Amino acid sequence: MNQIEYQRISGKILRGLITEANAQAFQDLFWKVATSAFTNFKKVKPQGSKGDKKNDGYREGEGIFYQVYSPENPKENAQKAVEKMITDFGGLYKFWNDIDPIKEFYFAFNDKFQGAYPDLRSALSKLQKTKKYSEIKFHLFNADDLQRMFRELSPEKQDEILHLNSDETILSYESLNIVAEHLKSLEIPDDVSAKLIAPDFEEKIAFNHLSASSTEMLKKHYENISEVEKYFSEIDDKELKQELQEKFTHLYNSAVKKYGEPADEECSDNIFFDILTCSSSHSMMEPAIRKAALSLMALYFESCDIYKEPK
Fold this sequence. Notes:
13 helices; alpha/beta; 7% strand; 5-stranded mixed beta sheet; Trna Endonuclease, Chain: A, domain 1; elongated
């Protein structure tokens, strides 16, 4: 794919990863991007009972520190986020200021592109006005900021994170098992119905307005359908194929609720990458897992369990 298409797809994938990431998954993603963006960025991992002293990473020698927080639902428990930020900064200052004097503090809050609480900004402002911290600059770092940091990376560094150009990965039963186990863990409504339709593949792609890049990915992995069918026939769980069918239908319906029906390329691609992100969980950056998820998507796309049937 050309550079323009790469940037577009990588942006959508990263947005999906950020939206789905909670707790450690978001911190791991933040670490990957920050480590690529700053050569002096140092990850700080908890040291047994001592923890990380409220420091999730810092830019060594610059006095720039980060504390990362990603709740499952950022719209809830605003007070908890405020209390965590204040408490964490107090702990960070007490331990780290003597090691590398703090000049800037970023509270990396995964708002999942919904916008941060006004109370968070107010609390940061109060910290800024505290005499003890008057020389320190305080910032809120949200999902948009992480995506912006990623976009500023070179194409080579972006690909070191997402591995979108890793095309030679072999589809394995191990990777299919990982995706299947993740999908089985998803809770879905009881009224999801499976379909047994097999329209013309090309006609369905055009009908659902898939972009050239999404079409290329889908067609490429459509070639793996016979291997996926063989996988289903050889595993012990004979109900798995239908169970995953229902899970993919649920993911498609959920994506449509977020973005609307696939009436144009932008909307259709948003749905496509939302399903890909949710089906491969936070392992989508691993080429083997992404290949397994895309191969399963191709199978269920063919039978109209995801996307609309051509009329």
